[in-house]
User: Fold this.
Amino acid sequence: MKKILFTLILFSGMLLSGQDLQNFYSYSLDWTNINNAYVGVDRSINTLVMTRSQFGAVANSPNNVIALIHAGISETQGVGIKMINDSRGVFSTTRFDAVYSQRFNFNEQNYIRFGLSFGALNSNIDLSKLSNGDVTMESGDPVPASSLYNYTYFTSGFGMVAGVRQFELGVSAPHMVLSDGSLEPFIFTTLSYRYDTPGPITLIPAVIYQNKPEQDNVVDGFITVDWREQVQVITGYTSDNRLRLGAGINYKNLGISYINENPTGAQTIANSANEIAVRLKIGQGKKAPVDVRSEIQKLLDETAAMLGGDYDRAYLKKRLAEIDRQLDSLLSKNTGENAREVDNSLNELERQLLLIIEKYDLTNE
Assistant:
């Protein structure tokens, strides 16, 4: 019995040592943990706390906690600080990172972002956890050498996200370079599509491919059903036979999400896992003065692209409604000194909008 308990505790800790980075970099509820390019996408201060737990009824079972705070420091740059703590039996791993991101926004639908992280990872082993009540180690029991598991090294990560219309492609290596100069080939590739239905529902299917060192690669499929960016329902399945079901709710600047992961198939020996994410957005950040003529020119460029391209009708309906609201806001900030120039631009914008409605047959939409 003593050796069985020892084996269970030791095995649960060895998962990360065996390069099972998948649980260390959990992503089911938020991709910021695996791709630094998502850091600082707006001028608000964004905080995120995520937890992932397995074998909840077993003492010293695997548990993962992620804490991240980030914000945009300009219209194109973001910074953040991230902490990940992963405890498994007698093993504990903690990583601290500083994160920087750079964005290049071509227009509302096309952009590219890059992110880098630099930090340190500390691993240690606590042999005192091998005691379980009155059960203690005997002289014949195997004892791991702590010197092999107590270490600190520097590490860095990289991420890239490119958006083209409703598609978004990401490539990231969150555990890319270690202090000994070695490269870790643990790579995420993500692809998502945002489909705005004519109603208040948005569908977001996504595929995640994990290139995992020393293990089988994994393909993960998700679909998120979003209602007015207030309520989300999530379902997904992975190529290594794990079913995910979850939901989330947003109220003002607070968001809470939960997802349950259950293994399927006759060969599985794992227990279910639970993830919880809490997000809090503080403030809206300091905004630069609005240049009305410049903003209307951006809308002219965007509508000209709509006329020359082939866009989804559901997206156009939603975007034209947004433009209408944006124009109301811009006109409220317009001053008499540039009123004539603005009027000329508005006339051209109105003409282009009418052509868009005619081209895409949105008259009855």
Notes: The longest strand covers residues 110-125. Helices lie at 2-17, 21-24, 292-308, 313-332, 339-359. Residues 1-19 have pLDDT under 50 and may be disordered. The two ends are 70 Å apart (CA to CA).
